[in-house]
C-alpha cells in the first residue's frame, strides 16, 4: 500500500485492516509525506492485524498514523497486532480525541539516524509489545502512556519521557547506551541503577510523591526540573553540576538522606535550588543528607 508517492497522500481505514504486506507512509527521502486515518466520526478504528510492516518516511512530523475515531471505549481503540512492525525515520502515532487509545502489541521502532518518532499527544497509549530507539534516532512518549511490554534504548539514541507515567508502569526497560530525558511527570518511586543508567531531568520535568534511589554509578542529572514531595535515599545523588545554571525546584518539602551536588567544585558551572513557588509550598528540608556547594 503506497501512501508515499503523492505528497500529502491520505488513506482512510475504517474498522480495521489485515496487513500481510508493506505500507509506506511518506517518502523515504523526505520529499513527501503521507497520513493514515483509522476510523472517523462515528466510525470505529478497529485493529491492524496480520504480519506486515508500516514504514515511515523522512519528512518531519507530517507522517501520521492517526487513531481518528471520535467514539468511546473499544470503538475508539486502535490496536496494532503482534505481527505488525512499524518503523522508519520521522512520524507521529496519535489519537484524535481524549477518549482514544492506541495499543501496540507488535514492534514500533525509531531506527533511522537523525529521525524522530513521537507517540501520543492525546488520549492514551499502551505498549504490550516492543518499542525502541536505535541507530541515533529519537523516541518521544507523550500524554498518558504505560507499558507492560519492552521499552528499549540503543547506543547514541534518545528517549524522551514526556506525559504522565510511573516507573512501575514502564514495563521492561533495557538500555545499551543513549540518553534518557525526563520531561513529563513521573509519580512515585524512581530507582536508577547500572541498568537504567543516569536520567536527565529537563524542561520542567517532575518527579512527584516518591523516593529517589541511585545506585551502580547512576545519578539524577538536573538541568531544569521539579522534585515534588520527594525523598532522596541514602547514598543517592541529585546532580546539579553537569549543566551550567542547573535549576531544581523543590515543592512540598524534601527528605534528603543522600546527596545534592550543587555546582562544579572548580567553579565552571553553578546550580540553584528553589524551595516553593507561586502556588506551591516550600515545605521542610529534612533527613540526614548533604548539600555540597561548588566553587562558583
Keywords:
296 residues; mainly beta; 13-stranded parallel β-sheet; 9-stranded parallel β-sheet
How is this structure best summarized?
This protein is an all-beta fold.
Q: Which structural class should the secondary elements be placed in?
A: mainly beta
How are the strands of the largest sheet arranged?
A: 2-5-8-11-14-17-20-23-26-29-31-33-36
Described by strand count, sense and barrel closure, the largest sheet is: 13 strands, parallel
Strand tally, please? 36
Shape: elongated
Radius of gyration over all CA atoms, rounded:
21 Å
Uncertain stretches: none
Mean pLDDT: 97
Summarize the structure in words.
The protein is mainly β and 296 residues long. It is built from no helices and 36 strands. The strands form 4 sheets. The chain has a 13-stranded parallel sheet with strand order 2-5-8-11-14-17-20-23-26-29-31-33-36, with no helix packed on it. The protein is elongated.
Amino acid at each position: 500500500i503506497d501512501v508515499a508517492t503523492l505528497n500529502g497522500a491520505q488513506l482512510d481505514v475504517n474498522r480495521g485492516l489485515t496487513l500481510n504486506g508493506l505500507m509506506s507512509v511518506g517518502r523515504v527521502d523526505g520529499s513527501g509525506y503521507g497520513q493514515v486515518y483509522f476510523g472517523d466520526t462515528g466510525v470505529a478504528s478497529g485493529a491492524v492485524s496480520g504480519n506486515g510492516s508500516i514504514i515511515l518516511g523522512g519528512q518531519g512530523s507530517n507522517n501520521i498514523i492517526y487513531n481518528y475515531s471520535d467514539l468511546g471505549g473499544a470503538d475508539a481503540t486502535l490496536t496494532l497486532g503482534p505481527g505488525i512492525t512499524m518503523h522508519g525515520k520521522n512520524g507521529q502515532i496519535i489519537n484524535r480525541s481524549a477518549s482514544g487509545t492506541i495499543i501496540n502489541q507488535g514492534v514500533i521502532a525509531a531506527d533511522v539516524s537523525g529521525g524522530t518518532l513521537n507517540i501520543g499527544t492525546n488520549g492514551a497509549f499502551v505498549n504490550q509489545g516492543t518499542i525502541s530507539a536505535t541507530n541515533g534516532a529519537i523516541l518521544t512518549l507523550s500524554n498518558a502512556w504505560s507499558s507492560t511490554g519492552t521499552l528499549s534504548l540503543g547506543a547514541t539514541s534518545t528517549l524522551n519521557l514526556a506525559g504522565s507515567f510511573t516507573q512501575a508502569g514502564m514495563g521492561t526497560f533495557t538500555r545499551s547506551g543513549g540518553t534518557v530525558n525526563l520531561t513529563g511527570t513521573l509519580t512515585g518511586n524512581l530507582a536508577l541503577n547500572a541498568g537504567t543508567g543516569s536520567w536527565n531531568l529537563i524542561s520542567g520535568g517532575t518527579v512527584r510523591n516518591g523516593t529517589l534511589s541511585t545506585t551502580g554509578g547512576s545519578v539524577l542529572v538536573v538541568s531544569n526540573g521539579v522534585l515534588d514531595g520527594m525523598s532522596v535515599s541514602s547514598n543517592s545523588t541529585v546532580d546539579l553540576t553537569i549543566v551550567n545554571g542547573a535549576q531544581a525546584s523543590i515543592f512540598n518539602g524534601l527528605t534528603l538522606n543522600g546527596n545534592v551536588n550543587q555546582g562544579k567544585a572548580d567553579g565552571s558551572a553553578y546550580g540553584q535550588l528553589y524551595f516553593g513557588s507561586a502556588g506551591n509550598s516550600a515545605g521542610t528540608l529534612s533527613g540526614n543528607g548533604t548539600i555540597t556547594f561548588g566553587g562558583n
